[in-house]
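Memo to structure team: turn this sequence into structure tokens by end of day. - J.P.
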Amino acid sequence: MDKQKPEIIELLNAVEKKYGHHLRTTTDFDEFSLHLKSKYNYIVSTSTLKRLWGYVNDTHKPRTQTLDLLCRYIGFDFFSDFCYHLKTSTVYNSSFFSTKQIQTKDLQVGDHVEIGWAPNRYVLLRYEGKNIFQVLEAKESKLQKGDYFETACFLLGQPLLLSYIAREGNKTAPFIAGRNGGLTLINQVLHEQ
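Reply from structure team:
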């Protein structure tokens, strides 16, 4: 088994999450090895842990027995059980979902849309056509009046990912609105023509 396999990386992340500490230094590996022995009677040497975490360069493949012990530590009987869990868990799978949304295909040029996200961000937009929006008003946001961006839809509860913002003739780096918790407000608003 290659220690760079995604299943092993997920296992190491799960072990660190349960342990409550990242394993980054010699002391970390020493303490974790002692923790496994004293609390669970699992014997995994510091050098084995260092190899598994890639702390030292080594071409040895991890032993199934070591992977099984770490899987027991996080609540699985065997590494094969953990791998099966990864393949069948909805946490790791794509899925369809239902939420309020505004799609550009349902808008007319000149329509206004308001969006917001935590903690207190508010932006009023005008649809310009061809998936382009202009910022008419922005409160507490990094978006600014006069900015333009391109998106095909707004999804309530999901972050708004923009590949760029057009500002004063330049394109910014990618931008994300509502990174934590997604958009909390999406409305098409009536306006006078």
